[in-house]
Amino acid sequence: MTKILYVEDNEDNIYMLTRRLKKKGIEIVIANDGRQGVSKAKTEKPDLILMDIMMPVMDGIEALKSIRSEVRLRSIPIVMLTSTTDIRMVTEAIECGANDYIAKPFSVTLLTERVERYVHAR
Fold first, then answer.
1. 56, pLDDT greater than 80
2. Per the omega criterion (within 30 degrees of 0), is the bond before 105 cis?
């Protein structure tokens, strides 16, 4: 079974995305901030990480850097989800090792396509 780590602090976004992906038979692990995301990436070893950029405690960019610094986690694809229109932040995420990003609000079709692309590529 495919396992996705979803790092997001907005409960409405978590509910919507979790509901849709579970219907496709995907196991979802939730982390509510970047620090939890790093911890769960280490313990859960997901097939894909979907991560918000703007979060409390540790933002998505810092969490991304931390995950990419772990040799055994480097091959996990990470797709950043962002509501920011600041292209510098998106550029920084890609430079720090994100595989892709999706702007919020996003279509479920687009998200599903990206999930399938990265999970099947592994």
1. yes
2. yes
CB 53 within 8 A of CB 89: yes
Q: Which amino acid is at 97?
A: G
Question: pLDDT tens-digit profile of 35-53?
Answer: 999 999 999 999 999 999 9
DSSP 58-94: S-HHHHHHHHHTSGGGTTS-EEEEE----HHHHHHHH
Q: What is the reported pLDDT for 122?
A: 66
Cβ-based burial of 91 (10 A; exposed 0-12, middle 13-18, buried ≥19): exposed
Task: Report the C-alpha gap between 60 and 54 in whole angstroms.
Answer: 6
Structure tokens at 71: 């040799």
pTM for the full predicted model = 0.93
